[in-house]
Amino acid sequence: MEYIKKLIAIHSISGDEQKVQEYIYDEINKLGLGPQKVGNNIVVRIQGMNSKKALLFNAHVDTVPEGSLELWKTNPFVPTVRGDKVYGLGASDEKAGVASLLLLAKKLITLKPMCDVWLHFVVHEELDGSGTKETMRWFMKQYKNKYKHIAGILVEPTGLEEIQIGHRGNIFLQLTAYGDSGHGSRPDIINKHAVFEMVKALHELKKLEKKWRKYNDQLLGKPTIALATSINAGDMHAPNKFPDTCRATIDIRTNPQMHALALGDIKASLQNLGVDLDVLYTPAGAGKTDKNNALVTVTKKLFPKARICISQGSTDQCFFTEEGIPAIIIGPGEKECMHISNEYCVASKIQKAQQQYLKIIQQWGIL
Ligand SMILES: [Zn+2]
């Protein structure tokens, strides 16, 4: 309980992870495990019997903002224990996972693992995944040739009830359409209306839904395109003025069959419409691990009741997939507690996760 309480008490909203990283660094250092810094991330290697295999655990230390304080029944930065539950911001997503890895580190100083174990504590997951991207690039550059087998476990919240093996990629776009501005009393002189120009563009993009249907992925399913997840034009306080611009956002969920083609298709659809296209954030690819992969099999045996499935949202698993590393997601936090007020985690699951992670290491390590 000590780790989770301490972790919740340290403010670590994305971009402000320095203090929590200092705490994790000190705790690992106290154990004599020699943590290293890779950018703002922390990596730790625990040498195992078989130095040709590495199992890499990944936990993000950042949280989303706490949101409206009125919706919280307790102070989000003060860990509050009620029975087996610990309330606080980031409790499930995913400080419970971080705590289970700190417990695992403590265990691994007394017990030699069957394979090399790596713990990556990363920043910026809730923003753009740049922490995992950075640590994976660093790791592959340094160790790709050293190991014969590498696999990963991300400790995102699944309540230990799901083993997630994939997710679709995403591309977020902003469209800007232009029109004539003018006085509301003179619609006759408005030749180009920004909102109608946007509607034309959206109609064109709607056709991609049908075109992309052929790209079906057995595990991840079909891509989707969500049009106008937000739209904005003019000023609600100036009903007598035509808007000269209209902006809309679009959310595309991709699968590996079409991820690389998606932007080209979008650009082709918008050709000659006079609409500007901006890519918001760096597009993230899909995450995908074969359900027959040895790590999935070992984990399923240890969690016989857990469901093998895909995750709806995007995770840092895509950076493992990008590097060709099979990875799964299973963690002690509660999935229904992600990004909500009154977030909590179940303390006993932190302990359980640590014990099961150790078994996964020992069983996967000797395969
Ligand atoms: Zn998370």
Describe the protein's topology.
Elements: H1 2-9, H2 18-30, E1 36-38, E2 41-46, E3 50-60, E4 80-82, E5 85-87, H3 91-107, E6 115-122, H4 130-143, E7 149-154, E8 162-164, E9 166-167, E10 169-178, E11 182-183, H5 194-211, E12 224-233, E13 241-242, E14 245-254, H6 259-270, E15 276-284, E16 287-288, H7 294-302, E17 307-309, H8 317-322, E18 327-329, E19 344-346, H9 347-365
Parallel strand pairs: 3-6, 3-7, 7-18, 8-17
Antiparallel strand pairs: 1-2, 2-6, 4-5, 5-19, 9-16, 10-14, 10-15, 11-13, 12-14
Helix pairs in contact: 1-3, 3-9, 5-6, 7-9
Structure, explained:
- Belongs to the peptidase M42 family.
- It holds the Pfam family M20_dimer.
- Keywords: Hydrolase, Metal-binding, Zinc.
- This protein folds into 2 domains: 2-167 and 286-365, Zn peptidases (Aminopeptidase, 3-Layer(aba) Sandwich), CATH 3.40.630; 171-284, 2-Layer Sandwich (Alpha-Beta Plaits).
- It is built from 9 helices and 19 strands.
- It has helices spanning 2-9, 18-30, 91-107, 130-143, 194-211, 259-270, 294-302, 317-322, 347-365, and strands at 36-38, 41-46, 50-60, 80-82, 85-87, 115-122, 149-154, 162-164, 166-167, 169-178, 182-183, 224-233, 241-242, 245-254, 276-284, 287-288, 307-309, 327-329, 344-346.
- The protein has a 6-stranded mixed β-sheet with strand order 1-2-6-3-7-18. It has a 4-stranded antiparallel β-sheet with strand order 12-14-10-15, with helices on one face.
- It binds zinc ion.
- Zinc ion (ZN) binds next to helix 3.
